[in-house]
Every structure is written in structure tokens, then in C-alpha cells.
Input
Amino acid sequence: MGGADSGGIVTARNVDLSSCDRELVQYPEAIQPHGAMLTVDEQSDRVLHASANCAAFIGKPPEAVIGAPIAAVLGAGWHELLGSLHRMPLDSGPVNIARESFLGSDQGWHLFAHRCGGLIILEFEKAEPEAAGTTSNLYSEVRADLAALQATEGVQAFFDLAVERIRAFTGYDRVMAYRFAEDGSGQVIAEARRDDLEPYLGLHYPATDIPAPARRLFALSWVRHLPDVGYTPVPLLAAKSPLVTGPVDMSFASLRSVSVMYTGYLKNMGVQSTLVMPLVKEGRLWGLISAMHHAAPRHISHQMRMAAEFLAHTLSLLMSAKEDAEQFERSSARKAAAEALTRLLDSEADIGAALHAAGALDLLSALIDAGGVVVQTGDEVTTRGEAPAAGPLHELTTWLRERARPVFATDRLPNLDPAAQAVASQASGVLALRPLPDQPMLIAWLRPEQIEDVQWAGDPRKPVEISEADGMQRLRPRNSFALWKESVQGRAVPWRDDEKDAATRLAAAIAEIAAARKGRIERINRALDASHSELSRYTDVASAELKEHLRGIHHLTTSLRRRQGEVLDEEGRQQVATILKLTQRMDALVDALLDRSRGGSEAASETIDLDAVVDDALAPFARRIAEDRIDVRRPMRLGTAQGHREWIGEVFTNLIGNAIRYNDKPERWIEIGVEDGSPPRYYVRDNGIGIADTDQQLVFQMFHRVDQPEQKAEGVGVGLAMTRRIVAHHGGRIWVQSRLGEGATFYFTLAPDEERHDA
Output
């Protein structure tokens, strides 16, 4: 990271955050003073580098060490260590190869070795005296902690317990679990701290707080320890030799001097010592466990660091397993929601209408984690959760329909559409799908701007610390939080690949349902066409047969009137005339229905006298009316109407016939009339058996009869169905009002009716 002023304070004036990702932190050319470092050329076994403090560790100053054979520097002990060096893997970080005293000193030293850039890097660190049983007690504690962590349910509970146990284990004042986002920024997801310390839980930080070079180095070692934040770096001195081609790569070195920006940042926070353990998943840095001590510098012994290394490695494994388990649960829930939604849409006739239902919106919300859901089909828009107002939402859906082909996803909508800045608080992130390109259907999930979705920790109104002495802004967590807020304006939490895959699969499922439905409709239409052709042929044959019988009846009746006319009394002659009239009427009706069934032209509409039509409709029932002494009431004239005479006559005939047929009263009556309205409402009323509420819609269905146990069925249940079709053909509607046992009134109109009636 960048430099700092002489006081080691990182301020808004002396920090260049853009330089952080370019800093070569692996080449500091200095180490921390609690240890010493030598580098050895593997080919010549000569020392090429030595830290300026090496005399305190090996008893020889740098000028006596640099260029000398390593065996001469470390004496006979070196030859004993060569076997260990050859047996141990040295390419993946420091290995503790000895706990030695050099040159007869009583002081014990840990010696660590690793290979990097063709050099063997040796690090010396003071060995603390071990109390009896310390190591066994330490590992017992670690095992107990791991058992408790393994028993937790869920990632959050795991980290909440982890930071508590690590704080107790290390003795540090604050321990935080920190998770990285895809863009390198991060968030404190768990924290254990001394009660008097300011909380950082929930705070977000920009990627520049832990820049890419630092993240790379953290991922290389299971433990990074800074015992004293206020240390003075010790220079690493180099030999004047052709073998020295550049600075030493200290990527794995535990003594590596850290960036002055890092120590300045820690000083701003009042931190005096740190211990950092990486959390690694599938070879990538997932996050960090960061321990901070505020009270004083704190050196962690080698034994405790080894325990911490073991703990960090195991934490990563447990964390990965628990996160995978949570991901599996989310995936299972998402799969169940997707399957339920697919079944729901497949069971509904109208997919678009089904998507607007509450059940579908619930499933869409369960399918993908979002702040809001929008469904649009045509001009109808339904939302669930947080969504923009109607006007901005209309502009957003219009914009999305042009880009969802079939799926569109962004977590930075205002960057793509400047007008979307107005809806950033609800829709900085959008995942949209348009499953049917030929239909105006859109499903969109919305995510708010990240700064609108933050779980605040501490006081968000105090993002800046200003020194009373010089008025400078100190870069520290709350300042970094302010920088993070600035960096994520207009950005939402990114959509994960599994979420985008779920949207893609849903789009494919809807398209498949629509295609299958279209295929079924096409097959049904073909079958109907074939059936219609067959029915037309049958209708032609049946109609011809029926017309032949009608002509036969007409001829026989005509012959009867001609030969027996003088013998018949007046009533007989009237009945013969009625038969002839009915055969003519039936012949005309058959012709009209036959023409309609063939898809011929609409029947010619004419002005008809409805009272005359009723006269004709009553004629076939004259004898029964007389025998049963049925009172036919016609309180007013019906007047005229536009329509087809034979068909309207059939309406009155069916309604009058039913009124006569379904009547069990000792004194029966039928009333035929009209009520004022627009259009007029014609009716046929009776005092018969009535119709139950449950049957009042069914009576207009084909082959449905309302039969009472004591009532003899006299029809096949097609009259009212045909009546409804005739009324509908005239643009009208038909309905019934009735109470069981108290008669029924059938109303119908012969033109479009703007008024509503209870059916």
C-alpha cells in the first residue's frame, strides 16, 4: 500500500488508494525485529542476505556472515540440519527444522526454512520456555473448540462461536470474521471484542483496505503474525555478488515487514498487535479471521501459532462444509419452488394470469433471494415486496423487455441506464426473464442498492475521525466504510450463478409449457376439424332424413284434410291445420340450423312480431293447456324485435314447454311478458316445481335435466342448451330466477345487455 507521514498516521492527505493494488508487498527488503533472516544460495551454500540484527541471534554481525559458507556461519549444527532440510517440503512455506542454540549460547532459537526464488530462506526466532503440560493442554483446548464448532448449525452460528473461542484461545482483545465479496470488498460477519471497544460488526470495506497483493499473501500462509504494530523495520542486507539479482521474495516469510499503510491503519484504530488466519475454500481466499490486541504488543509463541495454524486449516474445512450444506438447502428449496411453480403454471389455462396469483408470487419470491418481484403480462403489472412506483416501474419494464432475451442480469443498473438512478434504492440489481419472445410477458427480481441494504454497526452518522490537533481525517474503519459506501453507489449485491441458472431454467420451463400447450391446441384443432367434417356429413344425412319425414307427415296430413275434411269436426280441422303449420315451421328451422352448422352466412335478421311468434309457440301445446286447465297469462304486448323468426320461436317454444312440463301444482299457470330495460327483458314465468340454486347454472348445459323423484322425464336435456345458443347468437343472454317448489322465471334479451343480473 502507499506511504504515510513520519508519524505513521494514515490520513486522507497522504494515502493514494489507487496505488495499493500495485504495491510489491512481497519485496519489503526488511523484516520485523523479533527475528533474524539469512538467505542461502542452494548451489554454492553461501549466505547472500542477512538481516542487520543477525548478531543478536547467531552471534555474528552481517559483514561476517554475508558471502560466507552457511556451515561456517552456523557451525557443526548446520551439518546436522541438512538431513532435515532434505526430508521436508520447503516450497509451500516455512517449516520448523530445529530448536537450537548456536555458538554455545544458552538461548534457544526456533529455526524455520523454506525455498523461494532459488534461495533457502532461514528465519530465526526466540524460543519461549515451555511450561510443563502447556502443549498438551493447548491441543486439548483446540480439540474441544473444534468439537463445539462442528456441532453448530449454519454458517453464521459457526462464525459467532469461532470468534468467541479464538479470542479465548489467543487472549486478543478483538477477533473478527471477515468475508470477501467477488469484487474484493469485504464485510465483518462476526465479532468478539472487549466490552469497551467500538463495534465493527456489519461494517463493509472497499477492496483497497485489503488490496489484491495483501489478499494473495494472506492466502499463502495459515498464520500471519504482527507482534508489535509500532516496530522499526530491520533492513535485509545483500551481498555484492552476481548471484544477487534483485530483492528477496518474502511471500511465505513469517518475518516479512508489512506495509506502512497497514501499520498506519492499525495505529489509527489503536491496535498494537495482530494475528490473521485465512479462510480458504476450494483454493481461493474466502475470508479472514483477524485478531487484534489494543492493550499492548503481544507476541504469540511458536507452539500457539502452530495450534492456530491447525485451527485455521480446520476452520476452513468446517466452514466450507457448512456453507455447502446451506447452499444445498437453498438449492433444494429453490428446486422445490421451481417444480411447484412449473406444476402451477402447467395446470392453468392462462399462464400469464396464473403468474399474477398470490401463490405464484410466493413461489417466485422463494425461487430467488431479492427485495422485490415484478410480473408483467400485457398491460397488467403485479409486484411483491419493494418495487418502484407505477411510472418509473413502467419505464423499467419497457427497458427490460428489450434486453431480456430470454434472461438479463445486472447488479449495476444505473451504469447501464442513467434514468434508472431514480429507482436505485429498489432496483440497482435486476434479474429479468422474458420466456416467450412473441408475447409481452416479463418476470423480474429486484435488488436494492447495497448502501440501502446495510445492517449498520455502531453510529453510521460518524464515518470520519478528525484529529483535534491538526484537523486531518484519519483513515480507519468508519472512514473506510464511508469509502465503501461511495464505491457501491448504484450497485446491488451481485446475482450468483445458481440464481441466474434458476431464472434461465424457469424461462425454458415456461417456454416448454407454452409450446406443449400450443401443440395440444393444434392437435385438438385438427381433431375438431376432422370431427366437424364427419359431423357435417352426419348432419347432412340426418337433416335429409328428418326433412323427408316432415314432408311425409305434411303430405299425409294434407291428404287427410282433402279426403276426410268434411267428416272432421271443427276441432279436428284445427288440429290438422296446426300439424301442417308445425311441419312447415320445423322444415324452415332444420334448413336454418343446417346452414348454420355448415358455416354458412348469418341468418337474415328481420323485424318480427313477438306476439305472433308467441301465438305460434303456444299452438302445439293447445290441447294439453286445455286438458290440464293451465292458465296462460299475457299481461302486456311484447311488441317487435330484430331477429330470426324461426329461432326466436324455438326459444319461446322451449321455455313454454318446460313451464308446462315441470309443474305439479293443482292450479297451474304460465305468464309470458316483458320488462322494461335496455334492452327489454322478455320472460316466461310459471308456478311449477322450481329449480334448486345448485342447478340454476347447470340447466343450460347440454343433456342436463332437472328431474324430481316423482317427476317423469319428458326430454333429453338439449332444449335449454339450444335456447342459450340462439339467444347468444342474437347478442343477448339468458338467466333464471327460481326457488325450489315455488316456480321459475326465465329471462332473456335479444341484444347486448349492459346491466348485471344474478344468475
Summary: The radius of gyration is 47 Å.
